[in-house]
Amino acid sequence: MLDLISAYENHLKNVKQASANTVSSYMRDVRQFAAWLKTSQGVTVEAVTQQNIDDYLAHLDEGGRSSATRSRSIASLKNFYGYLVSTGFIAESPLREIHVHREERKLPQILTNQEIERLLNQPSAADAKGSRDKAMLEVMYATGMRVTELISLNVEDVNLEQGIVKCAGTKRIRAIPLYQEAVRALKAYLHNYRNSMVADLSDHALFLNFNGERLSRQGFWKILKHYQSAAHIEKDITPHTLRHSFAVHLLENGADVVSLQELMGHCDISSTQVYTQLVDQRLKNVYEKCHPRA
User: Fold this and answer.
1) pTM exceeds 0.90
2) Phi, psi (deg, nearest 5) at residue 133
């Protein structure tokens, strides 16, 4: 069983070249299912029947798991068993008659222009922490990067003269412009603090923690939460909220969807078109609030 699961993980990483987050999510679901099989059913993954799958879904329901978790687990197991079929380990998938219930996609939450200004104005660039934090927040809002992309940046990815940062996405590298305030914040951090923070001078990581090592996703999340509180923003924001806000604010100011898709690194334009729905909804809300006969 473990050999099949390991082979699948290797397939995701080296053949599908899935992102680290995708691999982590799929493997967590598959391993949880395998552990349940071992303790509750006494069968191996290649001997699973549709009845085993039905029992597992009932187990998730009884455990109070959300419908989103249930749907994600089905999708992960479909992918896993699709791999086993394609490689000849099994003849057919036990999930062939089970379908993922696709819930209506919720529109992402964004920050208003005023909330963005309050958030970006919180870090004081008078010391190393404030300068680093100011640079990170400005780059996030300037580029719409995913947090994984932000913390993966190296010093050589930034061209301050041209005002461009190179971002390594899941499929390809994209060059994203920086507005002047982001350039100034990066310049101040790089020139005044970054080299004195790094533990190993051969380390090229752009954003460092106070052990002198590359900042983690959890580290950035804590930093963002701190400044959210300081800015008195009531919304429960995440790093992805800045990405969503970047997209909507560009569309509201005249950006076209194809250009936005390029900036955000979306492979499928349908992922970008979600933001047009949010802009339409915001305009509708303004209309209903402001039109005298609405």
Assistant:
1) no
2) -65, -40
